[in-house]
Amino acid sequence: MSILSKMLKNKQKKRQDDNYRQKQDPQKPEDSPILRDYQENISHLKEEVGNSSDVKVREFKIGAHKGALVYVDGLANMISVADYILETLMEAEVPDETIDIFQFMLDKTMALGSVETITNWNQVFDTVFSGDTVIFLQGYNKAISGETKGWEKRAVSEPSTQLSIRGPKDAFTETLRTNTALIRRRIKSPNLRVDAMKIGIVSQTDIAIMYIKGIANEKIVGEVKERLERINIDSIQGSGYIEQLIEDQSWTTFPTTYHSERPDVVTSHLLEGRVAIVVDGTPFTVTVPALFIQFFQAPDDYYSRFDISTGIRMLRILSFLIAVIGPSVYIAATTFHQEMIPTTMAIAIASQRENVPFPAFVEALIMEVTFEILREAGLRLPRAVGQAVSIVGALVIGQAAVQAGFVSPVMVIVVSITAIANFSTPVFAMAIAARLIRFVLMGLATMLGFYGIMLGLMFMTIHLCSLRSFGIPYMMPLAPFNIHNQQDAFVRFPFWAMKNRPMFISKGNMKRSGENQKPGPPKQTENPSQKGEEE
Amino acid sequence: MEKAKVSAFQMFVLIVLFEMGSAILLGLGSQAKQDAWIAILFGLGGGVIVFFIYYRLYMYYPDLPLTSYLQKIVGKWPGRFIGFLYIVYFMYQASRILRDFGELLATTIYNNTPLFVINTLMIVTIIYAMHKGFEVLARVGEIFFGIIYLTAILGMLLIVFSGLIHLENLKPILENGLKPVIKTFLRETITFPYGEMIVFTMVLPFFNDKKKVKIVCLGGMILAGINITITTIVNIAVLGVGLFHRATFPLLSTVGRIQIADFIERLDVLFMLYLIIAGFFKIAIYFYAAVAGAADIFQIKNQRKLGFPIGLIVLFGSITIASNIAEFIQEGSMIVPFYLSWPFQIIIPFILLIIAFLRNRKKKTSPA
Amino acid sequence: MKKWVKVILLIGLSVPILTACWNQKELTDLAFVMALGIDKGEDDLYHVSFQLVNPGNVSSGQNGGGQGLPIAVYKSTGRTMTEAARNATKKVSRRLYYAHTNVVVISEEVARERTQFLNLLDSFARDPEFRTTTEILIARGASAEEIVTTLTILDKLPVSKITKEIKSTEAMLGENFSITIDDLIDGIVGSGKEPVLNGYQLIGMKEEANKAVNLQKTTTDAFLAADGLAVFKDGALIDWIESKKSRGVLWVLDKAKSTSITLKWKGKKNALVFAPIRSKTKVSTILKHGKPVINIKIENEGWLSEANTAIDLIDPKTIGKIEKLTEKAIKKEVQISVKEAKRLKCDIFGFGDVVHKENPDLWKKLERDWNNYFADLEVNVKVDSYLRREGVRTNPFWSDINK
Question: Are C159 and C50 within one domain?
């Protein structure tokens, strides 16, 4: 832990030296107070937004008082504006001309959940552009803002990238509030904290930092906030921006932050003491710190029984390994270490390669690149065309290329196994890292055979071991080895044995479950001999 | 000096990997013929005694590496001089092992590849690890420890199931009495690999739990010793004494014998996997000790800067150390044990311990 | 900026390394040598036949399984093995690759001459490409070239026929067993055990053996068959142990797993067949009047695979009698082999090693003249056979016929 605190201290020091900390949009107008004359206010507003057609102004009269309300068409809910502001305004009976009409309106005419008083222009723009309605009144140098947010948003739908068989079928949407609500619905604890923040000088994107107080490590929460505050960029268009701006190490292909579109995944991460960053406008929520092994854990691991999920997890790690070294092992075995292939197999491969015009490396490279192109093309194309591409691809890769004698059937097998193995990594960010490393290893295998592959893997391991995610070593709990955290790493223990939260990530409340959670058959009073064993 | 903290388990793993390192690959104690394993066990016993010298020294200066407390024990300049000799010794050892390693690859699989290339790639990997610091090295150790053990168990099972083990090859025990065994012990097994624990005096200060040093180091040495003994026994049992004596790399020949179901055979790659991992750690730790020592003596704050130059010295050393393998082995069996291993591993530390003991007694008695 | 200099230096250092591929060899550039045949010519050179595989004609893949012959044999000569191998490159378009060489056939002529035979062996042991599990055979009654050029029907590759055959003989009959180069060298070097090698014969019309026509008949004109064990002494072949007598050798060497032992029952010949399933042999030595005595103890269990006579197999006493008969039969086989070896004054059983291991001091005295000593060695054989089961019939139908 001392290393962590040391690191944090260093970071803080650096931050104090930061002299370009004014995160101001140079184009943004100087902040100034609201004027007393509402007409002037309206004209100032129009001047600022340059007569944007979606900014609507509606003037009204309440009693003898004049005023105007401002909202953005499309962001504000028209029904709210019409029914709960305008209608009540018009029907309101002003009892006395001398009363404070501002307070009267706040008290009596705004039939909305959240109403605030604002005094300066920055607040005006903030609220108007988030979909709220602002009311100026003649003679007051302040304004009322009423919550009328209600833009068109996508409904909660099924996750599209992280599917699960038994898990819940809801996924995050592009709306921050919906997302936080999805999480809040799952953790009904007052300790779940949602800290708001706005990032992006121009875009002013809403961001929520979520964690469970008492379970999350305060140091990590502080570090996350600090790193987020440090971000000085014009806009945030998705959680991917945030990820890249707050990771510990940029020079790596391995993801050091986790992202998910599944509220159940994020919730369980929160309960492990991690911090979630919900970004408005993206259905992907980022959680940190993220460890290597996490990318091999799929939600279904927890919904199916422990023995099955352990086996499947092993399978995933195996397939990651295949995805990384598959083609390079083929190259090494066929061009360097022919002695290690069993004789009959060596002859079979040799006979297939007899008429192939390329060396093994070129053959592998052609096939791998073709496959990557097909995959990339299939990703972007409309669904109907995508299928056509995959059919053409299958024909090109499989049949035609082999029949034309450009590639050997073994190569096709190797490429397909590698590709399929690659798909079994649950998180795309990790799968794509494997794809990149694969090509490097193929090069090494061509030059030095297994020695090259081994050195490449050695480099990779050293690199992985040197990575940290928010101060936590990336290869935890394998290196440094931590016996407590093995409960949910390569092996998933049954829930009754998974008693502790992961160390270092979580701090404080470490107990996950109570004692004696192991289920068993009912204790029979008639059979006293069994009773002893049950305990 | 780098500020690193290493846990008991990590230190244990590093010791096991380091000790097993090249000792398993080479026919350790093959002069003692079928009694090689006895010589190795003797070596372990001797090594444990020698380790206690290092341990006492560590107890006197728990926060300092060897090169620093040398200066405290024998004075600043003499200490620096001896420290410098140690650095040269570490670099020489790193070169030797790098040569061993490259030679093995060059004779078995990469017979057309220049030794220089094989060694360069290895040293580049090691410099990279060194650049990342000792903590990272320790973590890498943990991962590869698991891999090595899995391959070792797998290999062992394959050998057993191939029905290759003929324990009667170990007989007759002590055919020529204890003499050749003791000769091998003094000449070889005490200094290699057990006496090599001297390197760890450079990194023991990183230990985060001072109380466990003794148990961890001894445990590591004993586990490594047992592993080496088992490997030697298996080698003799599979190959027979004659071939064990003749083979340049007995383990490679043993692994080559595995043949199961006409499919699992020629598992040289398994052997190479072990070889690269073990070679990496052994060289890396010697290398690290050299770098840390140099940084300490020449008072260089950022020792990472030293990685590249010292790496080049080790690399060129490994090539120029001998012009052919016969010369290299001759050097290793005749010169290294008597002129390098004994003085650096046993004699100098022992003298240091006596001086340190006298000094500390003086300190204790004088104020009273 | 300094960091960049370093990075550039590192990359610069690795560029020359990365451009070359020293050990790379594409599969299509290799000629897999499956077997080597070594003959002696009149010119005192080794005449080496390289049996190469033609991959396209072996594999039965989509585009494989061609009509041509699966193997091609090239010949070359040289004063040493390496020279012969290098000379062969003048004739072969591809690099000869020995990692898959499974069989080395040495002609009887070469094997009978000590220096010529021994000069071969080191090249096999030293070359890292060569497998240590390669079989070594002696061509009996044929030249090595003839053995190597013969085509076989069932296995496309003649080599796999030979290696599989030796293995199945070892497992099912017990007359030949797998012997590798390491075993051979160990036997030649050690004084306590002399090596034996499998003999191979080409039976039939020799001139037809290497023609494709040979493959188009169900009964081939010429085929390969294992035949006898070649006995070596002082690094040269001295004699053969015929197939009939070789079974005892395997019993003693603990190589016999299964075989068939035909027994006489109440005067009827070939009445019963005992088939061992497992067998274990222990050879030990004791000192008797200052002389070593060898005790061989063979334990085996098996089943009755034939009963061609009326016999009451339900009676445990009968079983006991069959066991006794089997023991006697095995004992006799062993004694024949031992006698044969004694005649040749050649300790092929490794009795010397046993003495060495159990009594090193005595061994030092006997070591020098062991083979002569061996000729007069007292050897005791004890066999314990257990008949465990009798197949899926109780009493044979013979019991009912004769009623």
Answer: yes
